[in-house]
Amino acid sequence: MEELISQIKKALDNNLYYLALLAALTLPDICGALSSEDGKATKQRYIEWFNKYVGEKYKGCLTGEDCYYFRCSFVHQGTSQHPKSNYSRVIFVEPTGTSNIFHCNILEDALNIDVRIFVMDILEGVEKWLREVKDTEVFKKNYARFMKRYPNGLPPYIVGVPVIS
Known about the structure:
Distance between the termini: 13 Å
Shape: globular
């Protein structure tokens, strides 16, 4: 999990906002699954995780349900518009484009969020969640199957080169 967080931060540091945002939006699903008995992601788990670990920063602006709808539209259709969302679209401002911060604004019927702040808020939520669950039996069971990076390969399959599996 730490490697995934690190790579998302590197994406932000290199202005790879699509990649950082796409990856960050999947984290509530992953965290919800890793801390569940059946190890599966669900809409309800996503919403509850977001509301608990990130939602406080977005009260009156972005709910777990709206974030879930945005995640669905972006991950599956490549759009910031979802018919069930409370907003017509989500507009992310890149911090390299201006010295001003545009964050948590409702513009007409659209939600405006600073992409760096949003991604970092999710990552902070993941780090807090991880501290809470890392020693639980449910997490340990599910994390054993989590996709990890193996810098020296994964014997007996591949040895000597980095792999992700």
